[in-house]
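Reviewer 2 asked us to include a model.

Predict the structure of this chain.
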Amino acid sequence: MTVQIVLVHGIRTSATMWRSQLAFLDAHGIPATAVDLPGHGTRMAEDFTLHEALHTIDTAVRTAAEKGPVLLVGHSMGGLLCLAYVGGAQKPPVDALVAASCTALPQGAGLTAYRVIARAVDRLPDRGMWLTKRMLAATIPVETRSDFSAGGYALDTQDAALQALSALDLATAVARIRIPLWFVNGQYDQLRLSENLFRRLAPHAELIVVPRTTHLVTAMRPEVFNAVLRLAIATVDASDDLSVRADAPER
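Predicted model (structure tokens):
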């Protein structure tokens, strides 16, 4: 059966951040769905809640699982939510997980500092859009530069989403995950803070650090991230083939 991909975006952005990955997967005949979380993208008018965010992921995953094995892919906030979802008390129908730019616990002083900075930027005359555009122009290739903004920025949702993330028990969730798991970080990603902790919690996971990239690894080096997807897809395919052989009746 064909591997089904479910992509979950990060904070402030939307499903459009995955345009490069969606084009790559489509070119290779791999079915993929990129969701919009509540308060983001096409759902900007909605309030963000953990319940609805996890429900959104669960709905997309279960729909995809009807057609084949599922590779779940999340970036930043989306990665944290995917880790919490896969490592929940109930095992969902996910066969592998790529968690990008999310090896940090959304708690304590780190989260408080992040929220303070985000609020300060939001108080700028243009709510920080000039600064955001300058940063993207300096770091993101022109062909992927507009992907993060194409669905709009969820500026009014950001603080509520950050606060909600603090309720996640990520340490427990990550320790429960037994399926193939990849942590993908940019070399200069600020969310590498707890990278070693995440590796201890999930010793079977593979860590891939992409050189010369920051937090926005999917857009800065899309060809590298797409190669990670190829690796994950091949891993799921191989596991599925082994399962089929194991279930086949002996002759």
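The longest strand covers residues 70-75. The beta strands are 4-8, 32-35, 70-75, 96-100, 181-186, 206-210. We have added this to the supplementary material.
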